[in-house]
Design brief:
The chain is built from one helix and four strands. The chain is low in regular secondary structure and 91 residues long. The strands form two sheets. Strands 1-4 form a two-stranded antiparallel sheet.
Length: 91
């Protein structure tokens, strides 16, 4: 499971400190080379056993910036997760 940070990211860093498993890196460490923050899908636990919803999405000030991505085999996932591409937090 994982969430994905879209290209609407403003690089504000609100999400990084909220991630309980340190799955988010800034644009300098983004393996895709994009100038946005990045979620390592193999680390993201969708905050299962940490929060009711992904904390990164709650902290993000940019509406719709953090969306659901593919489920990663062997990783926990929220029962309430949306479809791939849907915003994690719907305003």
């Amino acid at each position: 499971m994982a969430v994905l940070i879209t290209d609407t990211c403003i690089n504000c860093a609100a999400c990084i400190d909220e991630c309980p498993v340190e799955a988010i890196v800034d644009e300098d460490d983004n393996p895709t080379g994009e100038e946005i923050y990045y979620v390592h899908a193999d680390k993201c636990v969708e905050c299962v056993e940490h929060h009711d919803v992904p904390a990164c999405a709650e902290a993000c000030p940019t509406e719709g910036c953090i969306v659901w991505d593919d489920v990663v085999d062997g990783m926990p996932q929220l029962d309430s997760r949306g479809e791939k591409g849907e915003p994690v937090i719907e305003e």
